[in-house]
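Q: Fold this one first, please.
A: Sequence and structure below.
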Amino acid sequence: MNNISSKSEFEDGALVAKPSLLNRALSAAKWILRRYRLPDHERRFFDYFAARRNGNTSDRSPVITVQCPEDPFYFFLFGETVCALRAQMPVRVELVVLRSLRSPPNDTSPRSLLRQIARWLYANRWTDRKWIALYKSYADGIAYRSAPLLAPWTEFKNWFRADRIWRSVTTKDELVALEEDGILIGDLVADSYIRWRPSPVLRLNDPYLRKVIRQALRELHRAQDYFERRRPAVFLTSYTSYVQHGIAARVAAKLGVRVQSFGNFQDFSKTITVEDSCHQRRFNEYPEDFERLENKEEKIAAAGERLAARLGGRNR
C-alpha cells in the first residue's frame, strides 16, 4: 500500500494514479513553450485586427497609450476601442509593457531553485515579444517597458534612494503614505510586496521590499518621462493597483491625461483622477459596509484563511 500511495492519490473516494515525473516534465515544457509562440487561435486574433488597420496613422496623429497586459480580454477590449477611435480619426497607439517584478526564492533548496528557473522561463523579455507582437496588430509602437534597467547613473541613484527609504521606514503606515515627486507610491509598494512576495503580511525588514521600492522608483521615472514628453489623448489601463499599473495611471492623471480603467466588476470603465486613483468603485466606503455586517470576527478569520490559502498557492 505504501508503494501505491507514493504514486497515487484519492480523489472523490477513488484511487487515481499520479502522472509520472516524465509526463509532468513534458506537460511543464509544453506549458512554457506556449509562452514563446503564437498558436493558431492567437494568430487568428492577430489577423482579426491586422485586417482592420488602415494606413492613415502618422507621427502627428493623436496618441492613444494602451497597457499591454497578457490577457485576451484586455487585448480584445483595447483593440476594439482602438478600432472604434480609428473609424473616427487617425490615431497612433503606443504600448506600455508591464512585466517587472518576479517572486523571490523562499530558500536555497534545489526545489526553490527550480521554481525560480521556471518563473524566469515563464516570464522574460522573450515572452514579452509574443504579446507585443499580438498587440501590434493594432498598435504602432512601444511607449516604454517596465522591466529594463534605466541609465547606469539613474539606476545607481534609485538603488541608494530605495535603500534609504527601506532602512528609514519604521511603520507600515509610514510606508503606505510614502510619496515621491508628489505621487503617492507607498500603498502600491505595499500591495505589490504582498502580491509578489507573496505574503499575507507586510514585513518591513524584508530585503525584497527594497527591491519593490526600487522598481516603484523606476516605474515613476519612466512614466514621468513618457507622459510629459508624449502627452497622449487618453491612457487605457486594466487596473490601477501594484506599482506597474498604478504609478503610470497616477502620473498620467496628474499631468492632465485622461485615464480610463477597466479593472472593476461594477462599471464597464472608470475615469481615474488625482483624487480617485483606485479602479474599484466606492472603495472608500468599504469600512462602512463592513461595519454593517454581522459576525465580523468570524468573517475576518475566514478571510484570513482564504488569503493565506491563496498566497500559499492552494487556490486561485
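Q: Good. Now the second chain.
A: Here it is, same layout.
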Amino acid sequence: MSKFSGVTDFYDCITIHKSFKEFKKRFRNIYIGHGNTPIKFKSIKDLICYYPYVPWCAISEKKNGYMRLTDVSYVDILEQNKSITAEEAENYRKLLIEESERAVRDADYESTIEYGARYKGN
C-alpha cells in the first residue's frame, strides 16, 4: 500500500520493479483514463504527480507495454465519495508535495527509492 493514496497505486507499480530503467523498458506508454496521448516522461521525476493514480489496465510482454491510470488520483476519488475527510485528503497531498520537493532537491532522487525492497521474500 502506497503512502500516497493508501492503496496499491502507480507508485507501487513503479517500485515493484528492480529499477526505474526496468519499469520504463517494460511500460513505454502510460495513459490517463481513456486518453489517446501517452504521458511524456524521461525520468521518474516526471511521474511523481501520478503516484496516487491507480492503474486499471496494464499489458506488457517484457517491453513496449502500456498502462492506463485512472482519470483522477485515488485520493480525489475517496474524497468525492466522502470515504475520507478533507483533512485526510490534504495529508496525502502534502506527502506528494514533499516528495516532489525532495525530487527537486536531490539530483540523485531515483537512487533513493527502494525498488523491489518491500516485495522481497513474498
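Q: Anything worth noting on the second one?
A: The chain has one domain: 10-106.
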